[in-house]
């Protein structure tokens, strides 16, 4: 018999605690498949954030640590100082990274820290129960913007990839979406390239995943993906914003 | 000498801290206990600067003082403010090149040192602090000239020979 | 032992840390400890270590968390409001049981306060501003030599206890110069040794097992068990880490309690009182947590009054009262705002207080 599919050894053989239709699981798996394909499971270190994915270390089969809200890039910078050659990444949501941790991500990018940040943008605070995030779309309802986000009150949704792409040290920046098989395949390519950038010591690398949060958006999983496609992608266009020659 | 409490004050840039640090360093080389405490703060360049130096044969408890065996003032505001700190019969050194006023007390030993003038005659007014340091060492013997010269060798290591010469001359210039 | 050298406190902290095995330093500019950050920026790379200037104290403490989680011997320093920002991180670090050395060169507060020396961070460092049940051993040196000795040992102590160690100095120690003798440098832990000596540290699963550094425990039972385990450690620390100095307390009429530089001023006061024929003594806590309660059992039972002398509104007095346990009246002599009382001021105020207990 020929093996045509095997789950990655990068994921522990356990069920995740994420809600049905949540795309965290897909993002986890893509990252760990890439780490495994690179043969780096033994010397990869991950930093989980505050948010639903704080427990990423219960699913990812590597050495990991938690970090305080928004501080994952600082923690990863610390790990990097001790282990100059390990593969190191942070995994952060949009409340964690774009709001409370805005300073840490900008300065990590600006120092050109040689680690990768995987940014899960689902336009809402998930773990705390559906509050407005800096990435929540105009008109999108949340428990702290019940009539929908208003520009005059909350400002416009923050485009983090575009922001980081203005920083010299952020040498690889790409936005992908986890809404279709084709886009998921593209997402994996972006993860691979980001890790390559890190392995080559070229600078800070960043992949933003547009993700679904059916529970807090109040949609069925399939409808959530449709909402992502119709609302998020037009505001957060997919594609590569920065890529060094060496990995093109 | 049991314990000598000293206080040095002037404008920033006059090398007041340098006088104190040289005495502290020299006293340490002589095996004494020493504390050197500079004032610090958000003062502007050229603002006031002062430091407290204590030299003793035994462990020094408080590095802070409220009276001194020696006060050295390099500018007028320092004279007005700190003249009262001198213990009766003890020393007040006044930079008379900068301060035209006289001290008001008669129960202390006062030395008027025209430090800037002497330094200028030697070729560089910047060495005024070394002239003052020399005057203090000569009059009080708080540390020896040998120790001070030893300190200078270390602190001026790598400097131009002319600079070292100037400072050595300044140290011995006051009569 | 090497020869005596004249050193500024802020530089001595750095030199002692490096000699004590510190290989990583994370800093952020704040007065009155900037000379230390500057010193480390020059020295760390020269001597095989790493220096990072963080974007904030929040970032520094979390970079330090990362370094400690990866098994590095890390040192962070700041001054009062900066330490306040670090409290979040310190709580995480205590729960994750990571070793780290933190130095607070404290100044006046509250708020931005002032930059002159203060001791108003006593509560901040002994109680902690971080959330949850935890403790951090705190040591308060009174001289530059003592600062060196404490910092030199702090890194092994932090490793041994898997807990942060805090050093509370003040602006005066930071800026002052005194002759010191420097200890021999210890060999730092190499990257290869980390997996062996710190198996819990993140160095990759290639070492043979998986390491997870965390503080999240969603099940109340798990969290309670974890906190109880931490407190077993703290109870042990309360026995083993107590450190203090005492002087003439066995036959004193008045006993002062004072730490850090203030204690040096008080020891001059004791000599001044002795000249008047008044027997005075001093308890100088070196460990502020654990507080040296045992020192108070040696106090002369006929002591008339215990005076807590500190540069704040009486924060340590709470611990002094608990240690005295009603056996003696406890009074306060204090200044705050960055003002340091002279020995004369303390002497006069003490005489006045003593007059009330004839």
UniProtKB/TrEMBL annotation, chain A:
Q: Where is the Thiamine pyrophosphate enzyme TPP-binding domain?
A: 52-200
MF GO annotations: oxidoreductase activity, acting on the aldehyde or oxo group of donors, iron-sulfur protein as acceptor; thiamine pyrophosphate binding
Name the source's superkingdom.
Answer: Bacteria
Write down the InterPro entries for this protein, in alphabetical order.
2-oxoacid:Fd_oxidoreductase, THDP-binding, TPP_enzyme_TPP-bd
SUPFAM superfamilies attached to this UniProt entry: Thiamin diphosphate-binding fold (THDP-binding)
Q: Name one GO biological process term.
A: cellular respiration
Under Gene3D superfamilies, the record lists: 3.40.50.970
Q: Which UniProt keywords apply?
A: Oxidoreductase, Pyruvate
Record protein name field: Pyruvate:ferredoxin oxidoreductase
TrEMBL record, chain B:
Pfam families (alphabetical): POR
Q: Which residues form the Pyruvate/ketoisovalerate oxidoreductase catalytic domain?
A: 12-172
Which InterPro entries does this UniProt record tie to the protein? Answer: 2-oxoglutarate_synth_KorC, PorC_KorC, Pyrv/ketoisovalerate_OxRed_cat, Pyrv_flavodox_OxRed_cen
On whether Ion transport is a keyword of this UniProt record, the answer is no
Q: Which UniProt keywords are present, listed alphabetically?
A: Oxidoreductase, Pyruvate
Q: Which GO terms describe its molecular function?
A: oxidoreductase activity, acting on the aldehyde or oxo group of donors, iron-sulfur protein as acceptor
Domain of life, per lineage = Bacteria
Q: Does the keyword Transmembrane apply?
A: no
Check the record and name the PANTHER family matching this protein: 2-OXOGLUTARATE SYNTHASE SUBUNIT KORC (PTHR42730)
Protein's recorded name: 2-oxoacid:acceptor oxidoreductase, gamma subunit, pyruvate
Q: What is the lineage of its organism?
A: Bacteria, Bacillati, Chloroflexota, Anaerolineae, Anaerolineales
TrEMBL record, chain C:
Instruction: Name the species this protein comes from.
Output: Flexilinea flocculi
Q: Name one GO molecular function term.
A: oxidoreductase activity
What are the Pyruvate flavodoxin/ferredoxin oxidoreductase pyrimidine binding domain coordinates in residue numbering?
15-244
Keywords from UniProt, A to Z, are: Oxidoreductase, Pyruvate
Give all residue intervals belonging to the Pyruvate:ferredoxin oxidoreductase core domain. Answer: 252-343
What is this organism's lineage? Bacteria, Bacillati, Chloroflexota, Anaerolineae, Anaerolineales
- Asked whether the keyword Oxidoreductase is assigned, the reply is yes
Q: Which residues form the signal peptide?
A: none
- How is this protein named in the record? Pyruvate:ferredoxin oxidoreductase
Pfam families assigned: PFOR_II, POR_N
């Amino acid at each position: 018999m020929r093996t045509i599919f095997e789950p990655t050894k990068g994921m522990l053989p356990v069920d995740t605690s994420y809600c049905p239709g949540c795309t965290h699981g897909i993002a986890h798996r893509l990252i760990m498949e890439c780490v495994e394909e690179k043969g780096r499971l033994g010397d990869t270190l991950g930093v989980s954030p505050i948010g639903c994915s704080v427990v990423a270390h219960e699913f990812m089969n590597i050495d990991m640590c938690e970090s305080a809200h928004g501080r994952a890039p600082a923690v990863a910078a610390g790990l990097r100082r001790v282990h100059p050659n390990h593969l190191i990444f942070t995994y952060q949501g949009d409340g964690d990274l774009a709001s409370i941790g805005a300073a840490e991500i900008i300065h990590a990018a600006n120092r050109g820290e040689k680690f990768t940040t995987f940014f899960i943008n689902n336009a809402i605070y998930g773990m705390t129960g559906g509050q407005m995030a800096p990435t929540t779309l105009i008109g999108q309802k949340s428990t702290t913007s019940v009539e929908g986000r208003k520009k005059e009150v909350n400002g416009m949704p923050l485009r983090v990839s575009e922001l980081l792409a203005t920083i010299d040290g952020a040498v690889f920046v790409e936005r992908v979406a986890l809404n279709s098989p084709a886009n998921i395949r593209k997402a994996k390519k972006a993860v691979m390239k980001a890790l390559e950038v890190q392995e080559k010591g070229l600078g800070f690398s960043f992949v933003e995943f547009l993700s679904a949060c059916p529970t807090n958006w109040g949609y069925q999983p399939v409808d959530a993906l449709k909402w992502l496609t119709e609302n998020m992608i037009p505001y957060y266009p997919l594609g590569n914003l920065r890529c060094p020659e060496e990995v093109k | 000498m049991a314990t000598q409490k000293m206080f040095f004050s002037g404008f920033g840039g006059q090398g007041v801290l340098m006088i104190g640090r040289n005495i502290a360093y020299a006293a340490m080389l002589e095996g004494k206990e020493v504390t050197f405490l500079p004032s610090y703060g958000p003062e502007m360049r050229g603002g006031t600067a002062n430091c407290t130096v204590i030299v003793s044969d035994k462990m020094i408890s408080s590095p802070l003082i409220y009276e001194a065996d020696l006060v050295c003032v390099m500018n007028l505001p320092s004279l007005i403010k700190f003249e009262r700190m001198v213990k009766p019969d003890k020393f007040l050194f006044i930079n008379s090149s900068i301060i035209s006023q006289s001290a008001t007390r008669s129960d202390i030993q006062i030395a008027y040192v025209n430090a800037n003038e002497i330094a200028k005659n030697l070729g560089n007014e910047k060495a005024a602090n070394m002239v003052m340091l020399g005057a203090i060492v000569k009059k009080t013997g708080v540390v020896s000239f040998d120790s001070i010269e030893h300190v200078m060798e270390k602190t001026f290591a790598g400097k131009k020979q002319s600079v070292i010469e100037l400072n050595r001359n300044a140290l011995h210039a006051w009569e | 032992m090497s020869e005596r050298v004249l050193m500024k406190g802020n530089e001595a902290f750095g030199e002692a840390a490096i000699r004590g095995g510190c290989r990583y330093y994370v800093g952020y500019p704040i007065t009155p400890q900037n000379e230390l950050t500057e010193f480390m920026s020059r020295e760390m790379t020269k001597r095989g270590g790493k220096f990072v200037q963080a974007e904030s104290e929040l970032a520094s403490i979390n970079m330090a968390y990362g370094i400690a989680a990866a098994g590095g011997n890390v040192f962070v320093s700041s001054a009062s409001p900066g330490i306040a920002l670090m409290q979040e991180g310190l709580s995480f670090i205590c729960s994750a049981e990571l070793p780290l050395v933190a130095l607070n060169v404290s100044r006046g507060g509250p708020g931005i306060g002032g930059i002159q020396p203060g001791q108003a961070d006593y509560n901040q460092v002994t109680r902690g501003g971080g959330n949850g049940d935890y403790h951090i051993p705190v040591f308060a040196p009174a001289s530059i030599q003592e600062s060196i000795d404490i910092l030199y040992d702090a890194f092994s102590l932090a490793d041994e206890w898997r807990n942060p160690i805090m050093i509370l100095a003040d602006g005066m120690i930071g800026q002052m110069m005194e002759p010191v003798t420097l200890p021999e440098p210890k060999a730092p832990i190499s990257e290869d040794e980390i997996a062996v000596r710190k198996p819990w540290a993140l160095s990759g699963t290639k070492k043979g097992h998986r390491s997870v550094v965390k503080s999240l425990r969603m099940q109340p039972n798990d969290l309670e068990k974890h906190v109880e385990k931490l407190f077993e450690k703290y109870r042990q620390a309360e026995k083993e880490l107590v450190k203090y100095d005492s002087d003439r307390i066995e036959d004193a009429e008045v006993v002062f309690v004072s730490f850090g530089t203030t204690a040096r001023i008080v020891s001059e006061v004791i000599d001044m009182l002795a000249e008047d024929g008044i027997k005075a003594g001093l308890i100088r806590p070196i460990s502020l947590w654990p507080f040296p309660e045992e020192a108070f059992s040696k106090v002369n039972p006929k002591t008339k009054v215990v005076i807590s002398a500190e540069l704040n509104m009486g924060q340590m007095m709470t611990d002094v009262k608990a240690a005295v346990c009603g056996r003696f009246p406890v009074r306060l002599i204090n200044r705050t705002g960055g003002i340091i009382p002279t020995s004369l001021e303390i002497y006069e105020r003490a005489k006045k207080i003593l007059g009330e207990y004839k």
